[in-house]
Amino acid sequence: MATKSLRRSTAPKASKVVAAKASKPGTAKPGASKALEKNKKPEKAAAPQAKPAPQAKAIAKPAPAPTLKRGSNGAIRVGIAGCAGRMGQMLLKLLITAPGVLVVGGTERKGSHVLGRDLGALVGGEPLGIIIGDNPEPLFEQADVVVDFTSPAATASHATLAAKAGTAHVIGTTGLDSDQMGAITRAAQRVPIVLAANMSLGVNLLEQVIEEVARILDTEWDIEVIEMHHRHKVDAPSGTALAIGEAAARGRGVQLRRVSRRGRDGHVGPRVRGEIGFSAIRGGDVVGDHTVIFAADGERIEVTHKASSREIFGRGAVKAVLWAAGKRAGLYSMKDVLGFNLGTSSSAPGGV
Ligand code: NAD
Question: Residue 74: pLDDT band by 50, 70, 90 thresholds?
Fold first, then answer.
């Protein structure tokens, strides 16, 4: 399916382009050029040009890589959906200073108390001259890439807008249901979408390791996935736990939905051979702990990843933003971004 070509900026200065389009909240406003000038990076510092994209399994069709909207300074224009959230604010801080990136806008949900505020001031920095709005359409129209850590419903509708505007979409939101996944999969036929329940290098490597261990061990070994997160997390088990479960199921050559056991309570009977179990713990400010237990008679293997800073997700998301700009249409995972998709696992991200 042909990917809609993005408009190439012909204006002499990126900041002027942004300012001229800034009539709507959520994007830069007139007079912003001076503040945005600070974001401008020299041509050299621009993110690498797009390389041929790896195949995203069963989804990507040959399509021309989009032409970037980036300005004459070569910076990739990035928008942040959910800019006032925990992840949104961190991404804002990282992206404002990221080489080769120009932050062009941020949105929040309707009714948010941050609407109308300046994006830079939101994270305690100098004003950027960009006003936070609640309309995602101009955000997707202006940006080369929109990074999205919001809610499942918002993310699904954002994916449709991404396809319409020809904008790459980096999605970290978890808890997506099958309809929402359907919207994202459809959008990925027109634009590049990176979808990952966990953007950290460590967790993506953990998934790879778990798949290998599950491949080696037979069903004499019970597999249990345990996760703990902060008290504010609304979905359970975590998207990461489910992605780890998918990896274990792939290693075993089974479908997770057939063997998954979500929590136990009451008189549940003995464990069924071959099950992959999930337990979720919530409390405090835990960023994200995941342990996979392989338990057999007389011995046990435990593999754990502990995130002590949310920055690991932010750094991964920034990598994904730089990687996605100009890629061919398709649904990609962090393994594609990090370059260690060893060919043993599906390219499609699991378990969000
Ligand atoms: P959060 O609640 O702090 O932030 C979400 C933000 O999105 C809020 O500010 C909310 O107002 C905003 N929002 C909601 N609807 C919106 C809309 N329609 N338009 C614009 N903004 C909207 O949550 P968080 O901790 O930042 O996490 C956000 C999501 O990212 C969750 O699904 C979480 O599980 C996931 N997450 C993923 C990773 C990863 O590595 N993939 C890491 C951390 C969190």
Answer: confident
Catalytic residues, which ones?
229, 233
Residue nearest to atom 37 of ligand 1 (CA): 172
- Compute the chain's Rg from CA coordinates: 21
- Report how far residue 7's alpha carbon sits from residue 166's, in angstroms, rounded to the nearest whole number: 9
Q: How far apart are CA 148 and CA 295, in angstroms?
A: 37
What is the third-level CATH fold of 202-307?
Answer: Dihydrodipicolinate Reductase; domain 2 (3.30.360)
pLDDT above 70 (res 9): no
Fold of 14-199+311-338: Rossmann fold (3.40.50)
- Using alpha carbons only, what angle is made at residue 218 by residues 215 and 274, rounded to the nearest 5 degrees? 105
Asked if residue 89 has its Cβ within 6 Å of ligand 1, the reply is no
Distance CA 288, CA 294 (A): 20
Distance 220 CA to ligand 1 centre (A): 39
Pairing assessment for the beta strands 260-262 and 222-229 based on DSSP bridges: unpaired
State how far the Cα of 113 lies from the Cα of 19, in Å rounded to an integer: 24
| DSSP assignments along 179-236, one per residue | HHHHHHHHHTTTSEEEE-S---HHHHHHHHHHHHHHHHS-TTSEEEEEEEE-TT--SS
Domains in the chain: boundaries: 14-199+311-338, 202-307
**What is the average pLDDT score of the chain?**
83
Q: Which two tokens stand for residue 205?
A: 């490597």
Report d(CA 223, CA 226) in Å as an integer: 10
DSSP letter for 102, please: E
